[in-house]
Specification:
The chain is mainly α. It has a single domain, classed as Iron/manganese superoxide dismutase, C-terminal domain (minor pseudopilin epsh fold, 3-Layer(bab) Sandwich), CATH 3.55.40.20. It is built from nine helices and three strands, in the order H-H-H-H-H-E-E-E-H-H-H-H. The chain has helices spanning about 20-45, 55-60, 60-80, 90-100, 105-115, 160-165, 170-180, 185-190, 195-200; strands at about 120-130, 130-140, 150-155. It has a three-stranded antiparallel beta sheet. Strand 1 (about 120-130) and strand 2 form a beta hairpin. It is globular. The chain binds fe (ii) ion (FE2). Fe (ii) ion binds near residues 31, 157 and 160.
Length: about 200
């Protein structure tokens, strides 16, 4: 069965100025949708038709890798966002404090990684073995291709923020990280919840 563009788990106007409806219209409705269409076109009639998205990512290269990984990364990114400001659940908070010193230190390091990433890509909080790590990956690349368990991502392609923040990537990253992350979803990803949800398209 072909992959479908997943519905957003909130209204496109729910984030106010943090992420505008216009950004969702382009980012979800045009960019993400195009990656879904191109992935479906590439797998139709091949051995990849019917496979899980993460399995396609792990076994592909070139255009199929880029498009399928972008489908997965975007599906995961939408789930990481919440229009309602949330607290970090206790277990995740203690893991963050153990590996980064404090929540403030973690946020500062994540912002530095996301802001400093050169050109297009994604900033990630991942579980690598039993340790939380912050990393960034270029273009379409995804932790699911590298054996790391993704917990949180922020899209740092210009298409994610240019309409609302122009070239001010630091402001976009800080606005999301401080106000618009679904920390309950991030905590659930310690058990792999997000991987299976984003696998659905
Ligand atoms: Fe994007």
């Amino acid at each position: 069965m072909a992959f479908a563009l997943p519905s957003l788990p909130y209204d496109k106007t729910a984030f106010g100025d943090l992420i505008s409806e216009e950004t969702f219209n382009f980012h979800h409705g045009k960019h993400h949708n195009a990656y879904v269409t191109k992935t479906n076109d590439a797998i139709e009639g091949t051995d990849n038709a019917g496979k899980k998205l993460s399995d396609i990512i792990k076994s592909s290269t070139g255009g199929l890798f880029n498009n399928s990984a972008q489908v997965w990364n975007h599906s995961f990114y939408w789930l990481c966002l919440s229009p309602e400001k949330k607290e970090i659940p206790a277990e995740l908070k203690s893991r963050i404090e153990a590996d980064f010193g404090s929540v403030d230190d973690f946020k500062a390091k994540f912002k530095e990684e996301a802001t400093g990433h050169f050109a297009s890509g994604w900033a990630w909080l991942v579980l690598n073995g039993d340790k939380l790590e912050i990393t960034s990956l270029h273009d379409a690349d995804s932790p699911v291709a590298h054996g790391m368990k993704p917990l949180l991502t922020i899209d740092v392609w210009e298409h994610a923020y240019y309409l609302d923040y122009q070239n001010a990537r630091p402001d976009y990253v800080a606005a999301l990280l401080d106000n618009a992350i679904d920390w309950d979803f991030v905590a659930q990803n310690l058990d792999g919840e997000g991987v299976s949800r984003a696998d659905q398209g």
